[in-house]
């Protein structure tokens, strides 16, 4: 969470429900005074239907449609900065505990002037929390999007390929042959030795998708990854052509799962054409059985390309509830004394 918490500014909090000093369940969230700049993480845009063209909550319902921003801000948004949001703790799926937790969360939000509480990017593991939230507030649970997950059910790369049709296997082998014929080498590398190269490809990716590359920001992120995780928790897969880095994918390990965390591409290099699929899917497919990995998370977007490489879709949801706010006193006309 420390890696990506800056996208929510300085107001990020941990909300924990405790038995004495022992936390039972906790989530992360932030107080928002106004809509977020990105419609992907703005609860008002998502729940009012203004994020439909971004592929979010496409089929509704949109419970905040027709509301003004003043009706829901300031507000509390429960969302983890890496999107994969679910309560944690030993009682994170216990209905009675979650009912008490939701009541306390709503009370805290009301005491801090919030007009609404929203839950974004809630995963399957958050289903009990959503159930409690909906029951207590009457909020609609909104299908938000789907995340791509690859279940590892093979013991070698041939087993991975056997999951596909003959036509798909042929296409994958053609892509690998295309890379080999152009001298593109796919391998694992140590993060310490390639940091500056990663930063350059990260900036290229940001520019490609309409952002403003910030080299200092990307340098900080790579440094934070190195400082936060043990080398055994990282797997960096690279693609090089004539020694030059043209693509990479960095995976972060948690238990027996990997998450694809960072990627970057040299869009000026023809050799990078199929490199993303090799670093993101084909080479990792050969690594995961020996590493004891049982699942790889690939996040949102590019669903069809990921599906063609074996991923399935896992739903995420959103919900939002407006809080009862004491009516503001009517302004007293000049010259009229208010009632005692």
Q: How would you briefly describe this protein structure?
A:
With 340 residues, this protein is an alpha+beta fold.
How would you describe the overall organization of this protein?
The protein is α+β, with helices and mostly antiparallel strands. It has two domains: 5-146 and 315-322, Aminopeptidase (3-Layer(aba) Sandwich), CATH 3.40.630; 153-293, Gcn5-related N-acetyltransferase (GNAT) (Aminopeptidase, 3-Layer(aba) Sandwich). Helix content is 31%, strand content 27%. It is built from nine helices and eleven strands. It has helices at residues 43-48, 95-111, 127-137, 157-161, 166-181, 195-208, 215-228, 275-291, 303-307; strands spanning 12-19, 22-32, 75-78, 116-122, 141-151, 184-189, 234-241, 244-254, 257-265, 295-299, 312-322. The protein has an eleven-stranded mixed sheet with strand order 1-2-3-4-11-5-10-9-8-7-6, with helices on both faces. A hairpin with a 2-residue loop joins strand 8 (244-254) and strand 9 (257-265). It is elongated and about 65 Å long.
Keywords summarizing the entry:
340 residues; Aminopeptidase; eleven-stranded mixed sheet; 9 helices; disordered C terminus
Topology:
Elements: E1 12-19, E2 22-32, H1 43-48, E3 75-78, H2 95-111, E4 116-122, H3 127-137, E5 141-151, H4 157-161, H5 166-181, E6 184-189, H6 195-208, H7 215-228, E7 234-241, E8 244-254, E9 257-265, H8 275-291, E10 295-299, H9 303-307, E11 312-322
Parallel strand pairs: 3-4, 9-10
Antiparallel strand pairs: 1-2, 2-3, 4-11, 5-10, 5-11, 6-7, 7-8, 8-9
Helix pairs in contact: 2-3, 6-7
């Amino acid at each position: 969470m420390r890696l990506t918490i800056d996208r929510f500014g300085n107001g990020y909090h941990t909300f924990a429900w405790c038995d004495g000093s022992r936390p039972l369940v906790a989530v992360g969230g932030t107080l928002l005074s106004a809509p977020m700049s990105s419609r992907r993480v703005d609860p008002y845009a998502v729940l009012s239907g203004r994020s439909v063209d971004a592929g979010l909550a496409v089929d509704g319902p949109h419970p905040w449609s027709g509301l003004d921003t003043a009706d829901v801000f300031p507000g509390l948004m429960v969302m983890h900065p890496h999107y994969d949001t679910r309560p944690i703790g030993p009682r994170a799926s216990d209905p009675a505990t979650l009912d008490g937790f939701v009541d306390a969360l709503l009370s805290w939000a009301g005491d801090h002037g919030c007009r609404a509480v929203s839950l974004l990017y809630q995963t399957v593991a958050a289903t009990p929390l959503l159930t409690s939230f909906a029951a207590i507030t009457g909020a609609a649970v909104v299908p938000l999007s789907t995340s791509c997950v690859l279940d590892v059910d093979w013991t070698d790369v041939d087993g991975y390929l056997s999951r596909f049709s003959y036509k798909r296997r042929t296409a994958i082998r053609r892509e690998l042959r295309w890379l080999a014929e152009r001298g593109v080498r796919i391998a694992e590398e140590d993060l310490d030795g390639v940091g500056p190269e990663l930063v350059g490809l990260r900036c290229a990716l940001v520019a490609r998708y309409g952002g403003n590359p910030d080299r200092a920001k990307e340098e900080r992120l790579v440094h934070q990854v190195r400082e936060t995780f043990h080398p055994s928790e990282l797997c960096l897969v690279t693609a090089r052509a004539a020694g030059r880095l043209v693509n990479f994918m960095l995976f972060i390990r948690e238990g027996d799962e990997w998450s694809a965390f960072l990627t970057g591409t040299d869009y000026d290099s023809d050799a990078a054409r199929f490199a993303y699929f090799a670093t993101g899917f084909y080479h990792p497919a050969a690594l995961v059985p020996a590493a004891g990995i049982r699942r790889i998370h690939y996040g949102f977007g590019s669903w069809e390309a990921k599906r063609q490489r074996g991923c399935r879709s896992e739903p995420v949801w959103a919900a939002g509830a407006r809080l009862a706010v004491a009516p503001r006193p009517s302004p007293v006309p000049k010259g009229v004394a208010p009632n005692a």
